């Protein structure tokens, strides 16, 4: 009986209708404008050789010593030129030791596999 009396009161009925419209509007908005269909980038991981490329700018000067600046630091794995060799643009002079990078790559692959398994578990 109390519910019927409350619904007969126009003030309470208006409040209930406004709340219902807000709830329905929220549900419709989330359903229509949800971002579930966003494009996702999918990358296939493939094993390949790692090549370190060094690009620098500066002035070339003749002399016994030339200061060089590199984007990445590390130990050299091998040097392909000797003192006094003539080099040209594009020649590979040396190669960095990439064992640490290869370890980081393997750790990233393991993390990816773990994340994919968690995703599959969540979707199941």
Architecture overview:
This protein is mainly α. The protein has two domains: 2-32; 50-124, no CATH class. Helix content is 44%, strand content 6%. The protein has helices spanning 2-8, 10-32, 99-123; strands at residues 76-79, 94-96. A two-stranded antiparallel sheet has the order 1-2. The model has no long low-confidence stretch (mean pLDDT 80).
Average pLDDT works out at: 80
Shape: elongated
Q: Beta-strand level of the residues, as a percent range?
A: 5-15%
Q: Would you report the number of β strands?
A: 2
Short structural description:
The chain has 124 residues and is mainly alpha-helical.
List the helices and strands and how they pair.
Blueprint: H1 2-8, H2 10-32, E1 76-79, E2 94-96, H3 99-123
Antiparallel strand pairs: 1-2
Tag the structure with descriptive keywords.
124 residues; mainly alpha; 2 domains; two-stranded antiparallel sheet; 2 strands
């Amino acid at each position: 009986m109390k519910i019927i009396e409350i619904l007969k009161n126009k003030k309470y009925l208006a409040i209930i209708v406004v709340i219902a419209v807000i709830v329905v509007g929220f549900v419709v908005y989330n359903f229509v404008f949800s971002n579930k269909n966003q494009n996702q980038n999918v990358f296939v991981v493939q094993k390949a050789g790692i090549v370190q490329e060094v690009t620098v700018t500066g002035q070339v000067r003749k002399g016994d010593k030339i200061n060089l600046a590199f984007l990445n630091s590390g130990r050299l794995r091998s040097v392909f030129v000797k003192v006094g060799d003539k080099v040209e643009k594009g020649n590979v002079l040396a190669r960095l030791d990439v064992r640490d990078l290869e370890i980081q790559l393997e750790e990233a692959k393991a993390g990816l596999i773990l994340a994919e398994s968690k995703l599959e578990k969540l979707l199941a």
